[in-house]
Amino acid sequence: MRARLRENWNRLNGRDRIAGIDLARGLAVIGMFAAHLLANADQFVWAEPATWSAIVDGRSSILFATLAGVSIGLVTGGAVPLTGTRMMVTRWKLVLRGLMLLALGILLILTGVPVYVILPAYAILFLLALPFTGWPARSVLWAAAGTAIVMPFIQPVLDALPVWGSLFGEELDAGIGWHYPFTVWIAFVLAGLGTARAGIVRATVQVRLLVVGSVLAAIGYGLAEVPPPTTDAYWWTVWSAQPHSSGLLEVIGSGGFAMAVIGACLLMCRMRWVKAIMLPLRAVGAMPLTAYTVQLVVWAVVALLLLGDPSDLTGFVALEPFWPMTIGIVLGCTAWALLIGRGPLEWLLERGTRPVGMELTRR
């Protein structure tokens, strides 16, 4: 037992593990559930502390997407992209991982829990990011910036397509995670990928993340206080900074916020005492898929047993489940990480993609 505990402790705190990324992931997972289950303010305003509870709305999932890009960047080489067979094998593994996430996401949707499950969008974003994995940092970051500026102008047109009002429009919406439209959200993934390529373990990169992200957040949220030049509904949509609007100012403000949070987490975890204190949250971030899935499954089971209907959001929120579920998940992830090791779903994804690498390597 001591040997296993020491091994798992070293895995969580060793050089191969970027503690700040785990911390940011843990915050993103818990933030998404806070957005669903807590009574938050309607609008987040920097100058009004009473509204700060709204900070989790939309921004948690954008942070999650940005961290997906960081993860893709790290597994495909970090600061120097992989080449040749190694890159090919890693890309095929990411394809299979994306398909597995899509399948899991659909299963979670079928539980009837009244949330917009992010995993289908997450899976599609994995696939869309693949062509950019061989690019250097500067090119990827420029692609992220270009997408962030252009796509909010196109998104209202895509949202108005007749397909969403068709017979199976609602199922299509859920099945591809359109609440997190990949057409816009690929910008967040590319920002994370570009950050990983820039050398995310370097202190200078971490400081730049914090500074640039804070500036972008200030610009996005600051401009949101200025009305657009016309009362046309299209321009109000494009100019929006509201959560999940996919408006230009949300992309700039919330994308910058995600970058700043990642930078802050990385810098804080350079201090050993902070790194130690944050171990429980880092344990959640080390197994984000498991934590996210378990919370939804527990939600479905409890709501079914106590309310008779897992889709009864009002009834479930009235049970005040956020803190018991969150504390349980944090303690469970911490115990699992220390006593057993990798999260079960993370282990399953790794095992599921291993044969692909072996087969391609043989060829």
Automatic annotation (TrEMBL):
Transmembrane segments: 21-41, 61-82, 94-110, 116-133, 140-158, 178-200, 207-224, 244-268, 289-307, 322-341
Domain of life: Bacteria
Pfam families per the UniProt record, alphabetical: DUF418, HGSNAT_cat
Domain Heparan-alpha-glucosaminide N-acetyltransferase catalytic, residue spans: 17-202
Domain DUF418: 207-353
Keywords: Membrane, Transmembrane, Transmembrane helix
Name of the protein this chain belongs to: Membrane protein YeiB
